[in-house]
Amino acid sequence: MMKQYLRSITFTALFLPAILGAQWAQVNNGLADLSTGAYTLGGSDTHVFVKAGAQIYRSSDHGDTWTAATTPVPGNPTECGAGFNGRYFAGLNASTACIYYSDDNGDSWTEAAGAPTATVVRGFFEYGGAFYAYTSNTGIYRTIDGDEWQAVNNGLSNLNVISMSAAGPYFVAATIGGGVFRTINASTWTATSGIGSGDLNAENVWRMGSVLYYSAQGGAEYSSSDFGDTWAAWTQPAFFGLGLLEVKRFDTNLYMETRHFAGGLRDSLFLSTNEGASWTNITANLNAADLNGSGILEHEGYAFIGFNLLAPGQGIYRYGLVTDVDESRSATVPTVFPNPVDDVLTIRLPGSAPLTYELMDAAGRRVSSGRLVPGTAQVDVARLQPGCYLLRWDEREMAQVRVVKR
Predict the structure, then answer these.
(1) Which domain does 166 fall in, by range?
(2) In terms of pTM, does the model score above 0.70?
(3) Cα(28)–Cα(65) distance, integer angstroms
(4) 121: number of CA atoms within 13 Å, CB side?
(5) Which residues of the chain have pLDDT under 50?
(6) Cβ distance 50 to 57 under 8 Å?
């Protein structure tokens, strides 16, 4: 099971100055139809995926150029996606099978064996070496190897799941109508307590440090410091404004899109790299009136966001996370393979100066570190638990890399 960083944290509204000079760049080269907006979907080991119109697009150069991929079902550009075990998985809103995978980044698709049918796959969640899909009316499905899926709904009395998260040995499912359920290994789900009867229509559930947080569709918020067993009312910080629209975690980075009123409705995008102890407003040059919860995605050192149907024509924007300067300055990307990895990770470093690396687990804990010289080096990862890790450097110009341990 993936190890968690067990510490309590107080949610504070400490803000850091906006990253100096950092701006969002519009990256729509190759997107043919933006009349109905654009949406981020997910990422594989090598590509990022978005949709516009009835088409899926992919990019292997961080959004500089997009090329059309095929769709798993004709005319269905999917609802979400994620990479697992060397494949890209797509979740659909369909009357037939609702999970497909691609071994060639969208050139062709295979229906996932045991996939749910006649539902909406709302998202994917990786934890403890397994990969989960949560749906609108068929609950939660799991795969260990990416080949076979099966329902894991024992004890999950509400199958309308909208969000998932994890803390300690437990992971949790937030539902529309049933509040929050938790489990250790998905063999049995248990309903949690403390959420008011009028607040059981969930909107988001997320973790900061070892504390879980929950927001209901009516605006109420709760927190849990015992891994989701019991919940208590929680007063949101001031920067939530009128409420939280979207929250996404990518390894150790946490993103929040919030809504406030300033001469009209405005949305702001915040980033925390330290489990919510401080936040940076990264809205920058984005049109704050038109974000509308259009999807936040992080991939290989860049954040992406899409502008949906309410803001047609704006498309996809990209933000460079690694350089902390204007997004137009690209980071140097090391070659890392195989990825996913079983035992030994090979790293090819460009340049002429040695670099210090850190390998961080999904809870933000350093599990490996060392000094590498330019050229080809190998790092032994055989002892690590299966899951997602972040390879980062002491040089800001060197891109961070997401590493998957099988």
Answers:
(1) 15-320
(2) yes
(3) 7
(4) 31
(5) 1-13, 15-21, 323-330
(6) yes
